[in-house]
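Ligand: UCC. Inputs:
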Amino acid sequence: MSRIISFNRVFSCGKYKPCNKKYCTAAEKKHATRGRENGIEKHATFASAKIGPFFQSPPKVENQYTGDAVLQSYVKRFIPNQIREPIETDLIRFGERVATEIYELGLQCEREPPQLIQYDAWGNRVDRLITSPAWKRQHDIAAEEGLIATAYEEKYGEWSRLYQIVKLFLYSPSSGLYSCPLAMTDGAARLIKQLPSTYSWVKDCAYSHLTSRDPTQFWTSGQWMTERRGGSDVASGTETIAVPQGDGSYRLHGYKWFSSATDANMTLTLARVQGQDGSITQGTKGLSLFYLEVFDDQKKLNNIQVEKMKNKLGTRQLPTAELLLDGAVAYRISEEGRGVAGISNMLTISRIHNALSSASGMRRILSMARDYSTRRTAFGDYLKNYPLHVQTLARMEVEVRAATLLVLEVARLLGREDTGIASDQESLLLRLLTPLAKLYTAKQAMSVVSEGLECFGGQGYIEDTGLPGLLRDSQVLTIWEGTTNILSLDVLRAITKSKGEVLVAFHDDVISKVTKVSRVQELQDQGHRVKEATLQVMNFVQKNPDKLNMAARDLAYSLTRIYMGAILLDHAVECGLTQTDTQTARRWCEKDLSLVVTNHKLGHYNSSKEDLRLVYEHYTG
Ligand code: UCC
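Predicted complex:
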């Protein structure tokens, strides 16, 4: 018999008072049940209050391809009919796999984070990294599914890259952060593919592994850029030296402060070549790019010590560590002093991956919140029947659609570059859109994923649901691969280095897109707004070169909002003006598209004195 403390209702004050009995008899239980049936709770059991009848129907992770209107319409719009069928069939299949088997593996990666064993029982230094079976399975799945290979086999020409990015989009939120090593692997594969013939031996060593579909052959790559003195200012933060060995190899000595996925087979990294007299060159001009295999043929670490695992807010699935390079054997794969320029090619790819992770992370939480709204009742009705709740979801939907379209556009341009058919204008556009996509979508992800958690009420705050991890893992998207401000400055770098050509390409592309809209009555006003904002922002840049540094972030936001507006309008027109596409474009264009001009008029860039005062008033440190 279960232990029951019963309560007698004292009707006069409406409270319950304990009835001193430890256990209820069968008759009392029956009575209690009758009491409940009569609407009067005579007996309440702790057991019942503790475990039931409270339960909720969990959100379902739906097929991530068939549930995503934008992905499907983009694929239909661009990928030619003759090759689309096998691609779509694969995407539908994979969309289901990421929602089931791979989703569960992703959760397992979070539950079983990696561990480092530095010493064996006898005091020997072993530096053994233990990763979960789920993490290892993600490695094999990545190979089997061709998540890197698809882009390099070029089976579908320029569309291979778009196909790969759509697959990664589906995969990323279920990957348990295996998306991170894949981002670096993709970056390394593309960099190695483009190396001049002097370094063709690297292709023989690594390229076939990085692009393999065979799990036993597939390698991942690291990207070791960050050292103790900093992550943004690579030029002055990099202390690692490379000592030439006379046989073409170098030995690296240094300390890598943040190696994201230490279980990689190889890495690309920066170091300063030491001259015969022991001298090194400081700054950017002293940095060269190196290829390094993490393990030797006996699977022993290549004179590398794993000093410490990083204790992070999120991305706990990743084996992120501090590494001591204690004479690691490496090979230079750039001209001396061209390391930053060299590794920037890798950064381009990992920044695009960052943007796709942001957009797909938003899509995942939104698709779960959408499903939940059809299951969860409150105040006597389903959430989907409360206009205020649906309005919240709709606003998130607009953000996700804009981010998704931008990522897909970038992927399409990258595919044209990969296959050597991009026009100069397209290459310039890609150079500008890469930092914009990275910085803007990461900020969107932080706010949309947070809003998404709120859609689950208290359950969104409970770790067992797997939801909080989505928020914790989003925060890094604004930081790694360059913070928002560093990326905003990269936008300025792109403008300066191209002597403004990237902006000309941007302007021409936006104007050609909105010109199409000028004949479409439903979207005429929005087209006009985008055009006006473009002209105003271009005008601001031309007239205020001295203010660009202070305005860099607002400029980047303005350019991104304008571009997102243009592609949403274009997509709406090209997809036959469906109601949802038209609504999305309209709503997007209600934003302040020329934020930088607004803030310029408000005097935000006149002087930094006001900001200084605001921040440091009463600061005595
Ligand atoms: O590694 C990390 C974690 C890995 C995790 C990967 C996950 C990916 C996402 C997965 C999603 C799940 S985090 C480490 C990331 N570190 C960064 O992102 C570095 C951030 N800092 C910067 O980006 C800075 O702006 C620097 C380092 C590029 C600034 O360095 P410098 O030396 O001051 O730069 P310079 O002097 O302006 O540029 C040097 C050369 C120039 O070439 P030349 O000499 O030909 O003019 C630049 O044009 O590099 C070229 N360059 C670029 N080229 C610089 N940036 C770029 C660029 N973005 N694209 C093309």
